[in-house]
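Journal club prep, shared notes

We agreed each person brings one worked example of a sequence with its structure written out as tokens. Mine is Plexin-C1. I'm keeping it raw so we can talk through how to read the token line rather than staring at a rendered picture. Sequence first:
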Amino acid sequence: MTSVLAVREKSWMVFFIGTSDGQLIKLAVDKNYHTTCPRVLYRADVDRKIFPKMQLDQADHKHVYVPFKNQIKRVPVSQCGTYLNVQDCWSAQDPYCVWCGSTSCTFEDDCQGSDWLSIADDFQQEMVSYKVLKNSTGQVTLSIQTHLTVGEEALSNFACHFSTSSSELCSRESPRSLFPECTCILSNSILPAEGLRVVLKLRLGTTHLSKELKLSNCSDIKGEPTSVLCRQCIKTGCGWSTSGCSFANQGVGNDSVCQKLESGINFSRPEISSITPNEVSFYGRNHVVLSGYNLSDVTRVRIQADMDCSPQESPVWNNTGVKLTFRIPSADSKGLFKVCVVLPDGSCHGNTTIDYMSSPSCTNITPSITWISGKRNITLIGSHLQFVERVVHSHDHLQEVRVNTFYKNFSYNAPAAEKEMSDITVFLKVANKTLTCSKTITYYPDPEFTSFSSTMTGDDVRVTIQKKADKLEMTPAELLVWGVQESIQYPCIVDAMETSNDFFVCHIKSTPNAKFQQLMIKYGDTTVTLNARSLLHLYLMLLILLLIPCIIVAVVIINRNQQKKLTSKMNQHMEDLELDIRNDIRQGFVDLQTEKTDLMENVGAIPFLDYKHFASRIFFPESESLMTSCIKDIGQDVVKVHLDDCCQGLSRLLQDQLFLTSMVNALEEQKSFTIKDKCALASLLTIALHNNLSYLTEVMEALLWALMQRNSNAQPKLLLRRTESTVEKLLTNWMSICLYGFLRETVGQHLFLMVSAITQQTAKGPVDCVTEKALYTLSEDWLLWQAQDFSSLKLKVLFAVGSEGEVSEPLEVNALSCDSIEQVKEKILSTFNAKFGFPYNNLVRDFHVEYEKDGSFLPLEEVDASSVVIGEVTMLNTLKHYKVPDGTTIKVLSKKTHPPLSPQGSLKDDENFSGKYFHLIDPDVEEDQRKNPERKKLKLKEVHLTKLLSTKVALHSFVENLFKSIWGTPNCRALHAIKYFFDFLDAQADNMKITDPDVLHIWKTNSLPLRFWVNILKNPQFVFDMKKTPQLDSCLTVIAQAFMDSFSLSETQLGKHAPTNKLLYAKDIPKFKREVKAYYKQIREQPPITDSEFKEFLREESKKHESEFNETVALRELYKFIQRYFKEIDEKLDQNGAPAELKEQLHHLKNSFDGLKGCTWN
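Then the structure, token by token:
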């Protein structure tokens, strides 16, 4: 024992004992100084001393910190969770554990409520005991005693129930059960001779216990007073007295009185003289020999700790009377254990011990290399290796090898292997446990001895044995050598001083004039015989030496010729590669210099979304359900009266600014109120107060002022940078409402022209329909630099009308030879819409196309039997694949009237993704270059970067016009909303005494350009009825970045490694920055707007769209937030000093909505 920690737990004292061999033992002592069985909480695999000072975890009092050298272990004070039923939980006799609510064994403070039970205040051997009592009148009483400590709930729900199969057991005079006792006065005081079986059922809270009792007439248990009769008496609830078995109140009811009695059976008293081995690891041992005298009647061997706790018994075999064999089981702890032998009557004799010690550990293997034929002597080094019984190699689990044990190490002969192997694990068999050695063994081929030569040295013969160099590290001690002359073997002693990896030297003593023709070499179990070399062998060796130079010269000549051919081939390949790259660069230069801005500027009617759809997409970009439900459609004016009353009450409450700001603050203080919830709250408030934009503006200003006060001491430049609060989303919505007219009347046309120009420019070059990358783009990440050669085609498209073969007038459609069939169909629809002003009545997937060839029409499909397959990847068919010429005729057929032959004509039809496809970018698989060499031409991404610049040139005028329209000022006056809000920011900066002009610039930039305009630039589908493609999105991202850089105050230094999206507009940014500064200056110098002017502006905006939204839905969604956080909102109103009337309105509103939910149809 090296360390002790004592802790008081309830009425018990718990000792945590550390030992020198690395064990942490727990021992509980009750108030009467009786101890429970010791339990091992932690056991180190190797002997490690526990240092003296152990500490209890002060945070939870459920762990002990155990100090070792260079390590501290945190060990639980109990293992309550390992006990699965109430009996095991109680039997553990652990003061820390309680059985909680009939479900689990746990710590008391982890048990919810007081429905628990635990061990009693003192040590007990049974949870429930009973006694059979008899008074002087002959009345028999059954007394039950529970040895438990229980919680209040379990105590108040205590009950006992006795039952038997024959008749009613207890009389009506039996007293009521009162914890911890139950009493049953038997109705019949005469018990049957064979005994009476009684089932006892106990209820303690929700826990139910059951025990079967056998009641006997105590005076009927008669016989010679032996220990067997005594135990039978005590077991039936009776007592033992000097006269024999009697009722419990007339004798002793403890079985300790039985230990003083003899068994009554005549056996020779056995004696133990020795146990071999008497030291084992805590895993036990399978084969142990016990020697002694009078062992013939022994049936079992009992092994137990000093305190008679948890004895283990093992059967015996091969019992000769003086020796017997048995198995030592595993133990939880280390140390001395008592051993005695058990006779048939249950008595145990003998007083010897065995020592449980740590488990073996293997730290090194020498040598760690062996030959595949096996039998090399291997030595393992480590601790407690004397407990190892067998060794197994991982390559052959069936073959177990015996060991030769020495102090702290042992050796064994390695088993054979079939081939060369590395990292073979060595397993140690200890009883029924398999341990792994930390080192591994490698198998190499057997040593190969090639020849020998002998020379005379006096009367001795010196033999030199040649061998091939290997990795076996063979030592002289592992070799046995004999020289053979006329069938007589002469031992050859290997010289340890004259050895190397490729030869050994040995000496044969006292053999004058001997000529040895053979040499026998033995290693392991393998014997090799070498014969002396003949003259023919020498001649062959000489011939080989002469041929070697000739062979070397021939190899050199052949190698030089092959090098010349390879060099010539590589030079030709490099020339072809340089030619391809020069052509690509020249073509890029030509495209850049000849790029024409021939993009169509007349795009017809602009498909603007109406106000309510525009606003709903801004308000709820990530919630389509709220987006649709908050828009008022036709037929939604008639709403139930009681629902209107509730919503009107909430609407009136929202008109109180104190309530509204308190509600927002209360919700934002909750950790469960996410950013998504904050944005939804802001948008729902915008809809609910849309008819009163003036009040909404006042609320927004109040919330913004509070936000500025919170950030004033931190970093003011970060204000309004992101949307992380309700007011920031509210500001986004407010800007969208106030700037919608300007967006539709001024900026919208320029934005749509730019979007159309991007779409047209992208369509001029190839687009990979699998990866969505394009040759003409502004984004390097979306640049299709792997594109192959292509050409432009003009197609004459005919539309089938009816089912009799009639067709429409031809429509001219521009396409590319590299277009997939689906891309051709999309270009047909786009051209149809542009020419006729309305879309074709079928979607892409609802029609198929055919092309005219030699007077007949052939179907065009993206995937068919003729598709090119590379590995497991299928190439999508293109116009080039079908060899469609320029000017060919294409017919469009509806699938309803002309069903296609193939069930899948498009990549999108493969809904289960059962195939892998590619279009213009080759898959990363090997293919035969001879089949399609042009697809293997090397492409460099940097060569095609000029495509980014040419695209930028083509779009530049559209981008420039859009930017100027955004920061332009119609009639030299800024919009009312922008001027008002910028003046508000100026006033707040003055109040906060912020003199840095950069802070104001950043506030204005964060609130308008980066908050509203960037969102519109990147998402034109918020403004127009259109679909945003990945190619369009990539270009808009680059343009939006240039827009943001125009408002930046920092000067960015760009080099050759700068991203291309920054470099594209690097020369334009300074000009844009000057225009932005002038724009901000003009707004600042403009005369301020009066409050009456701005309120009139807001009133007109509210009136324009007063019936656009479903306020009832918004109010109902807002109430869901109020209902979820009602308590927090109520407390916030108290903190803000809200009047009682306001709180009454809130509670009345809650009652109204609760009543609404409680209404049902009869």
